[in-house]
Model the fold of this input.
Amino acid sequence: RNWGVSKIYEMEALEYHHALELFSRHAFKRNHPDVGYEKLSINVMKYAQGVPLALKVLGCFLYKREKEVWESAINKLQSILHPSILEVLKISYDGLDDKEKNIFLDVACFFQGEGVNLVVKFFNASGFYPEIGISVLVDKSLIVIDSYSKITMHDLLQKLGREIVRQESINPEKPQ
Done:
């Protein structure tokens, strides 16, 4: 499988028109929002705070989704009193299935910088269907496969993954 190489964007905030263009490239696969999505795009951008990683991750999450999903995501963002970039990025994590979430968390905690082939073997042995799971995480800009076939993720996403694991260990779900 050719995993491709993605660019990891830095944390410096972009000017409005550059932020809208970056978000639009990931949410609509063009440099501007689709007709009818302009106001929704502006609302999402407000919570991304011009941070390129957040714009890219949210754009990938919202790509090809119905307006109702956009509105739900915006409502969730608005419930964050003081928008934290980690909480903004968590919305994309929340949209993953359980196996994809497990792969994301394992990469954040154990496999950052490891070779993709080794990680795929590990996840195959664990029954996690890694080819599709890793592909989904790459498509959503949650992980990157670099030019050396190593799995990497932005420091903020690694921090998010580790925080999720920490919270789950403090408040484990009770069996039903």
